[in-house]
Amino acid sequence: KLDQHPAGRHFLQIPGPSPSPDRVLRAMSYPTIDHRGPEFAKLGFKVLSDIKKIFKTEQPVIIYPASGTGAWEAALVNTLSAGDHVIMFETGHFATLWKKLADNLGLKSEFLAMPDGQGWRNGVQPGMIEARLREDTEHKIKAVCVVHNETSTGVTSDILAVRKAIDAAKHPALLMVDTISGLACADYRHDEWGVDVSISGSQKGLMLPPGISFNAVSPKAVAASEHARLPKSYWGWKEIIDVNKTGYWPSTPNTNLLYALAECLDMLLEEGMDKVFARHNRLAEACRRAVRAWGLEIQCADTAVYSPVLTGIVMPEGIDADVVRKIIYERFDLSLGTGLGKVKGKMFRIGHLGDCNDLTLMATLAGCEMGMQLAGIKLAGSGLPAAMNYLCEYPGGLLA
Ligand code: PLP
């Protein structure tokens, strides 16, 4: 273990919070202004308008001073009533936590799951959702809730296919999507995909520190909110949407995070979202090539739904992934994501999202490789040349 403070920057390669670009950190350091004063409304209007371009929606996006969990709760309490039946899909730890939250609120949740734990290695199965909705001839199911990018496993589900499944079953259930770690890393289209509530957070693809989260809503979701009876006050959309029309919030917004949001929205929109997605996909592919060269397994078993945000790396039998992570943290000052829930100790996660470039990824892979060797893992070979060759041969949009 290093016994002095290590020189150089810490490598924060967990799948969120992601490292914030210097531009964003500087923006956040401006003095806090009066959130009821004239200057503030300019900032309010700007972020409320630009965030819509990221969700690809013309509808209101509600910004909460809260972590993603708050926005999960807001989505449910605004649209549903006690005892309402909702179906959720078991893709991993975050889907499981959202289900628990729904149960705590007094909803009747049902988990659709692939057999034999395969759900934690695959995406949402639209066919299973369609079949379940077809059985529900009385339309008791009020919402279908799915996670777009399952951060615990590194799987990005096909949300349009879920929309099509609901439509094919001719079912009126609302579609709610957690894109907390997917937004601004993987393509996302709130309006085009017919999502009723999209939930996201600041600390992943948006590259901000944790502390704000979002509900993008559809007209159908807003209509449902007029009859929903779960208790709500702080989370209530109506008052926020009304006050937002003036550029302000009903209670104190986190002003400095909104400065940071304005800056990151400028950065993302200057780059262009297609390039943002291509950048993430390219780093993810380089990472996966390294994992394969190590002779290790990727947690996501379906190549069609690999996550551009993170890669889950399965450890060989008998190796505790958290011991490997600890060695890497202590020796190389590199933070990696722990295995969560059912895969605790069995895998670790490399985040390649947000403010991460080729050399950040290469350093991360080098840290992983050295740490795994120190942990006594027999690798099939070095992963570094595989990743380097891919990054050299495939410049992506960088040279365009
Ligand atoms: N959903 C997903 C997919 C997440 O990745 C996370 C956090 O990592 C959450 C929900 C919970 O968000 P928060 O920890 O910001 O409350």
From TrEMBL:
Chain sites annotated for binding substrate: 349
InterPro entries, A to Z: Aminotrans_V_dom, PyrdxlP-dep_Trfase, PyrdxlP-dep_Trfase_major, PyrdxlP-dep_Trfase_small, SP_NH2Trfase/AEP_transaminase
UniProt signal peptide: none
Residues with PTM N6-(pyridoxal phosphate)lysine: 204
Gene Ontology biological process terms, A to Z: glycine biosynthetic process, by transamination of glyoxylate
Reported cofactor(s): pyridoxal 5'-phosphate
Keyword annotations from UniProtKB, A to Z: Pyridoxal phosphate, Pyruvate
Assigned protein family: Belongs to the class-V pyridoxal-phosphate-dependent aminotransferase family.
The protein's name in its UniProt record: Alanine-glyoxylate transaminase/serine-glyoxylate transaminase/serine-pyruvate transaminase
